[in-house]
Amino acid sequence: MKNGPHTWRARECDRFCTLAMASHLDSNPDHVFIFDTTLRDGQQCPGAGMSPDLNIEYALLAADANIDIVEAGFPSASATDFGIVHEIAQIYAARRTAPTVCGLCQLRPEQVAKTIEAVLPAKGRARVHIYLPVDPNLMIASLGSKHVDQAAL
Q: Which helix or strand (DSSP H or E) is residue 18 part of?
């Protein structure tokens, strides 16, 4: 691997991904995982956005309800979203039992790195949910000129 400004992030990502995979090796094969997107999807509903404090309160309720995975937000969308996801990851990391914390991002290196940074406090109980729009118009908006260069993806 070439040394450069993102080398440490690539190494951290490799280690993070290994931890994430290992955490499911001992899972009960009959368990159905509950993936709650309320904190991320709920923020997109007009008039239904929650304050950072309410996000934390909901994350704690989800933990008490034994939700398996909580998608806490879109950390690269804003400093506030990053802070919420990071704080939830820290809270879950400090608990003996807690949901896995997940952050959503587009398939862009800077967004993936930012999302990993946000959920990293919960190593082993953290996930990154990556999406790539398939609608050509949305691909242009999300990826710019890279939308025509599949090799760059």
A: helix 7-22
Q: What is the pTM of this model?
A: 0.74
Mean local confidence (pLDDT), 73-95: 96
Per residue in 48-57, pLDDT tens?
Answer: 778 899 999 9
Three-state secondary-structure class, residue 96: coil
Backbone angles phi, psi at 11, to 5 degrees: -65, -45
Rg of the chain on CA atoms, in Å: 16
- As a whole number of angstroms, the distance between CA 78 and CA 83 comes to 9
What does each C-alpha distance from 112 to 1, 74, 117 come to in angstroms?
Answer: 18, 10, 9
Of the chain, the end-to-end C-alpha distance in Å amounts to 18
